[in-house]
Amino acid sequence: MINDLMVDVLANLVKRHRRISLTAAADILGMDFEELSSLAKVLSDREEFELFDNSICFLMPRDQDAYRVRLRSHYIEKYAIGRLATSFFKTGDHVVVESGSTMTILAQHLAQVPQIKVSTNSYAVASMMIGAETAADIHVIGGNLYTDGQGALGPIALGTVESLEADWGIICPVGLSTEGDLMYYVEEEAKFARAVMASCKRTMVLCNSSKIGVPSRFVANSCAQADMLIVDSGVEPSILDKLIAQGVQEVHVADVEAEASSEIVLLDI
Fold first, then answer.
1. CA–CA distance from 30 to each of 27, 33, 39, 44 (Å)?
2. What is the C-alpha separation between 115 and 75, in angstroms, rounded?
3. Does residue 269 fall inside a structural domain?
4. pLDDT at 144 over 80
Protein backbone atom coordinates (compact mmCIF):
# COMPACT_ATOMS: atom_id res chain seq x y z
CA MET A 1 0.00 0.00 0.00
CA ILE A 2 1.37 3.42 -1.00
CA ASN A 3 1.95 5.86 1.83
CA ASP A 4 0.60 9.26 0.68
CA LEU A 5 2.81 11.06 3.18
CA MET A 6 5.93 9.49 1.68
CA VAL A 7 4.76 10.48 -1.81
CA ASP A 8 4.64 14.08 -0.56
CA VAL A 9 8.10 13.70 0.99
CA LEU A 10 9.45 12.48 -2.34
CA ALA A 11 7.68 15.35 -4.10
CA ASN A 12 9.45 17.90 -1.90
CA LEU A 13 12.79 16.20 -2.53
CA VAL A 14 12.29 16.29 -6.30
CA LYS A 15 11.22 19.94 -6.16
CA ARG A 16 14.41 20.79 -4.31
CA HIS A 17 16.68 19.02 -6.81
CA ARG A 18 14.52 19.65 -9.91
CA ARG A 19 15.72 16.31 -11.28
CA ILE A 20 17.00 13.44 -9.18
CA SER A 21 17.87 9.83 -9.93
CA LEU A 22 15.69 7.22 -8.26
CA THR A 23 18.84 5.61 -6.85
CA ALA A 24 19.89 8.86 -5.15
CA ALA A 25 16.38 9.50 -3.86
CA ALA A 26 16.22 6.01 -2.36
CA ASP A 27 19.55 6.57 -0.59
CA ILE A 28 18.49 9.96 0.77
CA LEU A 29 15.14 8.70 2.05
CA GLY A 30 16.57 5.42 3.39
CA MET A 31 14.33 3.26 1.24
CA ASP A 32 14.95 0.27 -0.98
CA PHE A 33 14.89 0.94 -4.72
CA GLU A 34 11.67 -0.98 -5.44
CA GLU A 35 9.74 0.91 -2.77
CA LEU A 36 11.05 4.24 -4.04
CA SER A 37 10.18 3.32 -7.63
CA SER A 38 6.60 2.62 -6.59
CA LEU A 39 6.36 6.03 -4.93
CA ALA A 40 7.83 7.68 -8.05
CA LYS A 41 5.23 6.04 -10.28
CA VAL A 42 2.45 7.43 -8.10
CA LEU A 43 4.08 10.84 -7.99
CA SER A 44 4.40 10.94 -11.78
CA ASP A 45 0.60 10.90 -12.02
CA ARG A 46 0.73 14.51 -10.84
CA GLU A 47 1.05 16.80 -13.87
CA GLU A 48 4.01 18.74 -12.50
CA PHE A 49 6.25 15.65 -12.37
CA GLU A 50 7.67 13.39 -15.09
CA LEU A 51 9.22 9.97 -14.58
CA PHE A 52 12.06 8.69 -16.78
CA ASP A 53 13.96 5.37 -16.71
CA ASN A 54 15.88 6.10 -13.51
CA SER A 55 15.04 9.67 -12.61
CA ILE A 56 12.11 11.96 -11.93
CA CYS A 57 11.77 15.66 -12.77
CA PHE A 58 9.83 18.59 -11.37
CA LEU A 59 8.35 20.36 -14.38
CA MET A 60 7.42 23.73 -12.89
CA PRO A 61 9.90 26.62 -13.37
CA ARG A 62 11.88 27.44 -10.24
CA ASP A 63 14.35 30.22 -9.55
CA GLN A 64 17.98 29.18 -9.33
CA ASP A 65 19.87 28.75 -6.09
CA ALA A 66 22.35 31.43 -5.05
CA TYR A 67 25.51 31.53 -7.16
CA ARG A 68 27.78 30.31 -4.34
CA VAL A 69 25.49 27.34 -3.80
CA ARG A 70 25.51 26.49 -7.51
CA LEU A 71 29.31 26.58 -7.63
CA ARG A 72 29.39 23.62 -5.25
CA SER A 73 26.38 21.80 -6.64
CA HIS A 74 27.14 19.02 -9.16
CA TYR A 75 30.73 20.28 -9.18
CA ILE A 76 32.36 17.11 -10.51
CA GLU A 77 29.84 16.89 -13.34
CA LYS A 78 30.50 20.51 -14.33
CA TYR A 79 34.26 19.98 -14.06
CA ALA A 80 34.11 16.92 -16.34
CA ILE A 81 31.94 18.77 -18.86
CA GLY A 82 34.33 21.73 -18.84
CA ARG A 83 37.36 19.53 -19.44
CA LEU A 84 35.69 17.79 -22.39
CA ALA A 85 34.42 21.06 -23.86
CA THR A 86 37.87 22.60 -23.84
CA SER A 87 39.28 19.72 -25.89
CA PHE A 88 37.41 21.06 -28.93
CA PHE A 89 39.08 24.49 -28.92
CA LYS A 90 42.17 25.24 -30.98
CA THR A 91 45.06 27.63 -30.41
CA GLY A 92 43.93 31.20 -31.00
CA ASP A 93 40.19 30.48 -31.00
CA HIS A 94 37.84 33.28 -29.95
CA VAL A 95 35.07 32.05 -27.64
CA VAL A 96 32.10 33.88 -26.14
CA VAL A 97 31.20 32.59 -22.68
CA GLU A 98 28.04 33.52 -20.80
CA SER A 99 27.78 33.69 -17.01
CA GLY A 100 26.99 30.92 -14.54
CA SER A 101 28.62 28.43 -12.21
CA THR A 102 29.33 25.94 -15.00
CA MET A 103 31.12 28.67 -16.95
CA THR A 104 33.22 29.69 -13.96
CA ILE A 105 34.36 26.09 -13.59
CA LEU A 106 34.91 25.88 -17.36
CA ALA A 107 37.29 28.86 -17.09
CA GLN A 108 39.81 26.67 -15.23
CA HIS A 109 40.15 24.60 -18.39
CA LEU A 110 39.94 27.48 -20.87
CA ALA A 111 42.99 29.01 -19.24
CA GLN A 112 45.02 26.06 -20.55
CA VAL A 113 44.23 26.72 -24.25
CA PRO A 114 47.15 28.57 -25.90
CA GLN A 115 46.42 32.11 -27.13
CA ILE A 116 42.70 31.76 -26.56
CA LYS A 117 40.55 34.89 -26.68
CA VAL A 118 37.60 34.95 -24.30
CA SER A 119 34.73 37.43 -24.42
CA THR A 120 32.40 37.07 -21.44
CA ASN A 121 29.66 38.97 -19.65
CA SER A 122 30.75 37.34 -16.38
CA TYR A 123 33.21 38.99 -14.00
CA ALA A 124 33.70 35.61 -12.28
CA VAL A 125 34.77 33.93 -15.54
CA ALA A 126 37.14 36.80 -16.38
CA SER A 127 38.56 36.79 -12.86
CA MET A 128 39.19 33.04 -12.97
CA MET A 129 41.05 33.38 -16.27
CA ILE A 130 43.19 36.26 -15.02
CA GLY A 131 43.90 34.43 -11.75
CA ALA A 132 45.27 31.48 -13.71
CA GLU A 133 48.02 33.79 -15.00
CA THR A 134 47.26 32.75 -18.54
CA ALA A 135 48.32 34.58 -21.66
CA ALA A 136 44.71 34.58 -22.82
CA ASP A 137 43.12 37.73 -24.22
CA ILE A 138 40.18 38.52 -21.91
CA HIS A 139 37.37 40.87 -22.94
CA VAL A 140 34.60 41.70 -20.44
CA ILE A 141 31.22 42.51 -21.99
CA GLY A 142 29.44 45.38 -20.26
CA GLY A 143 25.77 45.93 -19.49
CA ASN A 144 23.30 45.86 -16.62
CA LEU A 145 23.74 43.66 -13.54
CA TYR A 146 20.56 42.41 -11.90
CA THR A 147 21.34 39.58 -9.47
CA ASP A 148 24.25 37.80 -7.78
CA GLY A 149 26.21 35.56 -10.13
CA GLN A 150 24.40 36.86 -13.19
CA GLY A 151 26.34 38.37 -16.03
CA ALA A 152 25.99 41.78 -17.63
CA LEU A 153 22.78 41.86 -19.66
CA GLY A 154 20.56 44.27 -21.53
CA PRO A 155 20.95 46.33 -24.74
CA ILE A 156 24.66 47.10 -24.30
CA ALA A 157 25.57 43.44 -23.78
CA LEU A 158 23.40 42.34 -26.71
CA GLY A 159 24.90 44.96 -29.01
CA THR A 160 28.42 43.87 -28.10
CA VAL A 161 27.74 40.17 -28.69
CA GLU A 162 26.09 40.83 -32.04
CA SER A 163 29.32 42.43 -33.32
CA LEU A 164 31.78 39.75 -32.19
CA GLU A 165 31.56 36.94 -34.80
CA ALA A 166 33.58 34.60 -32.57
CA ASP A 167 34.60 31.05 -33.42
CA TRP A 168 32.55 29.55 -30.59
CA GLY A 169 29.64 30.62 -28.44
CA ILE A 170 29.33 28.64 -25.20
CA ILE A 171 26.01 28.68 -23.37
CA CYS A 172 24.63 26.81 -20.37
CA PRO A 173 20.85 27.02 -19.96
CA VAL A 174 18.97 26.67 -16.69
CA GLY A 175 17.16 23.71 -18.20
CA LEU A 176 16.97 21.60 -21.34
CA SER A 177 13.45 20.29 -21.85
CA THR A 178 12.78 16.85 -23.31
CA GLU A 179 11.45 18.71 -26.36
CA GLY A 180 14.93 20.15 -26.87
CA ASP A 181 14.24 23.73 -25.75
CA LEU A 182 17.14 25.68 -24.21
CA MET A 183 15.46 27.45 -21.32
CA TYR A 184 16.26 30.22 -18.84
CA TYR A 185 14.47 31.56 -15.77
CA VAL A 186 15.30 35.21 -16.62
CA GLU A 187 14.20 36.61 -19.98
CA GLU A 188 17.30 38.80 -20.41
CA GLU A 189 19.52 35.73 -20.04
CA ALA A 190 17.52 33.94 -22.74
CA LYS A 191 17.97 36.94 -25.03
CA PHE A 192 21.72 36.97 -24.40
CA ALA A 193 22.04 33.26 -25.18
CA ARG A 194 20.01 33.75 -28.35
CA ALA A 195 22.34 36.54 -29.44
CA VAL A 196 25.40 34.36 -28.78
CA MET A 197 23.98 31.59 -30.94
CA ALA A 198 23.16 34.03 -33.75
CA SER A 199 26.53 35.80 -33.85
CA CYS A 200 29.07 33.00 -33.33
CA LYS A 201 30.25 30.62 -36.03
CA ARG A 202 29.51 27.58 -33.88
CA THR A 203 27.58 27.07 -30.64
CA MET A 204 28.33 24.64 -27.83
CA VAL A 205 25.73 23.88 -25.14
CA LEU A 206 26.94 22.64 -21.75
CA CYS A 207 24.32 20.97 -19.60
CA ASN A 208 24.84 18.75 -16.56
CA SER A 209 22.42 15.88 -15.98
CA SER A 210 20.44 17.67 -13.26
CA LYS A 211 19.15 20.11 -15.91
CA ILE A 212 18.08 17.56 -18.52
CA GLY A 213 14.30 17.30 -18.82
CA VAL A 214 13.84 20.34 -16.59
CA PRO A 215 11.94 23.24 -18.19
CA SER A 216 12.07 26.89 -17.17
CA ARG A 217 10.25 30.10 -18.14
CA PHE A 218 11.89 31.49 -21.29
CA VAL A 219 13.12 29.68 -24.41
CA ALA A 220 16.36 30.93 -25.94
CA ASN A 221 16.34 28.55 -28.88
CA SER A 222 16.11 24.90 -29.82
CA CYS A 223 19.08 22.71 -28.95
CA ALA A 224 18.88 21.46 -32.54
CA GLN A 225 20.12 24.92 -33.61
CA ALA A 226 23.37 24.41 -31.67
CA ASP A 227 26.35 22.60 -33.16
CA MET A 228 27.27 20.56 -30.11
CA LEU A 229 25.76 19.42 -26.81
CA ILE A 230 28.01 18.27 -23.97
CA VAL A 231 26.47 16.46 -21.00
CA ASP A 232 27.76 14.22 -18.22
CA SER A 233 27.41 10.47 -17.92
CA GLY A 234 24.49 10.81 -15.50
CA VAL A 235 22.07 11.46 -18.37
CA GLU A 236 19.89 8.49 -19.25
CA PRO A 237 20.46 7.13 -22.78
CA SER A 238 16.73 7.23 -23.56
CA ILE A 239 16.67 11.00 -22.99
CA LEU A 240 19.71 11.53 -25.21
CA ASP A 241 18.12 9.37 -27.91
CA LYS A 242 15.03 11.56 -27.79
CA LEU A 243 17.08 14.75 -28.13
CA ILE A 244 19.04 13.30 -31.04
CA ALA A 245 15.80 12.28 -32.74
CA GLN A 246 14.65 15.89 -32.46
CA GLY A 247 17.66 17.10 -34.43
CA VAL A 248 20.46 17.71 -31.91
CA GLN A 249 23.47 17.56 -34.19
CA GLU A 250 26.38 16.32 -32.09
CA VAL A 251 26.33 14.97 -28.53
CA HIS A 252 29.37 14.25 -26.35
CA VAL A 253 29.21 12.66 -22.90
CA ALA A 254 31.76 13.55 -20.22
CA ASP A 255 32.71 10.60 -18.02
CA VAL A 256 32.28 11.74 -14.43
CA GLU A 257 33.89 8.61 -13.03
CA ALA A 258 37.10 9.35 -14.95
CA GLU A 259 37.74 12.55 -12.99
CA ALA A 260 40.40 12.03 -10.34
CA SER A 261 39.59 13.95 -7.17
CA SER A 262 43.23 14.93 -6.76
CA GLU A 263 43.03 16.96 -9.97
CA ILE A 264 39.90 18.92 -9.07
CA VAL A 265 40.25 22.40 -7.64
CA LEU A 266 37.30 23.68 -5.64
CA LEU A 267 36.51 27.32 -6.27
CA ASP A 268 35.99 29.94 -3.60
CA ILE A 269 34.81 33.06 -5.39
1. 5, 9, 13, 20
2. 27
3. no
4. yes
Q: CA 20, CA 54: separation in Å to the nearest integer?
A: 9
203 closest CA partner among 256, 250, 156: 250
Domain identity same for 200 and 122: yes
Which of 169, 254, 241 lies closest to 207 in space, CA to CA? 254
Contact 20, 56 (CB under 8 A): yes
pLDDT digits (tens, 9 = 90+) for 206-229: 999 989 988 899 999 999 999 999
Residue 249 has a pLDDT of 83
Helix axes 4-17, 22-29, angle to 10 degrees: 120
* Max Cα–Cα distance, the chain, nearest Å: 63
How far lies 71's CA from each of 12, 197, 260, in Å?
22, 24, 18
Residue 264 confidence class, pLDDT cut points 50, 70, 90: low
Do 162 and 195 share a domain, yes or no?
yes
On whether the CB atoms of residues 52 and 209 are closer than 8 A, the answer is no
- Cβ atoms of 119 and 166 closer than 8 Å: yes
CA distance 207 to 210: 8
Domain for residue 268, yes or no?
Answer: no
99-116 mean pLDDT: 94
Q: What does the pLDDT read at residue 111? A: 92
What's 35's domain CATH number? Answer: 1.10.10
Question: ∠ CA 247-200-80 to the nearest 5 degrees?
Answer: 65
CATH number, domain with residue 244: 3.40.50.1360
How many structural domains comprise the chain? 2
